[in-house]
Design brief:
four-stranded antiparallel sheet, 194 residues, alpha+beta, 2 domains
Length: 194
């Protein structure tokens, strides 16, 4: 799989069973194309571990703000893309900010992972567990900071206008209240005297 956002600078591989001892099963990936793939079998409570291999092309370097790996369990309704339920999301920071200048292999381990449901790919529903590797990169933070500052100033100005308006409203109410109270007391006296 190509590194997202890195163009053709590298390639990622997950090695989940380096000893070759874990059972595998052939799984149909897609109803339309009849594509099949060998997948490892994991049971509820088993550890999930292995290594991530990041292979860079020659003379490539990648600056990053960290490398994060997530173990995700997700249910997707295939006829309604807005219905996605992520029931497991475990995350580990594999590398601190730095620079990749050569091929790198990073070991990972998620102990005692709860896997309450069996993986399933059907006509309407897909339930799956997968690993997602994210190489965190910084692109244009200065632009974002400027946008945030101007938004914050706009919010502060709006809050000040609201406070002034609210304060003026309270002053008007307190000025009107005594006159209404006097009218009420006079009307009450008239009714009790009759």
């Amino acid at each position: 799989m190509d590194l997202l956002g890195l163009g053709s600078k590298g390639h990622i591989d997950f090695i989940l069973d380096p000893q070759g001892q874990r059972k595998q099963i052939e799984v149909k990936l897609d109803d339309n194309n009849n594509k099949r793939s060998l997948q490892y079998i994991y049971y509820d409570g088993e550890d999930v571990g292995g290594s991530v291999q990041i292979r860079l092309k020659k003379r490539s370097k990648v600056e990053h703000q960290g490398i994060r790996l997530e173990f995700i369990g997700k249910i997707e309704m295939l006829n309604d893309r807005s219905t996605i339920h992520e029931f497991i999301n475990l995350s580990k920071l594999l590398a601190l900010p730095g620079e990749l200048t050569e091929n790198t292999s990073i070991d990972f381990h998620f102990p005692n992972v709860e896997k309450p449901y069996e993986s399933y790919i059907g006509i309407n529903v897909k339930l799956r567990y997968f690993l997602r590797l994210t190489i965190i990169r910084r692109f244009t933070n200065t632009i974002d900071e400027r946008k945030n500052e101007s938004l914050l100033k706009e919010i502060e100005n709006h809050e000040q206008r609201l406070l002034k308006q609210l304060n003026n409203e309270c002053v008007r109410i307190t000025q009107e209240y005594p006159s209404h109270q006097e009218e009420f007391q006079q009307r009450l006296q008239q009714l009790t005297n009759n």
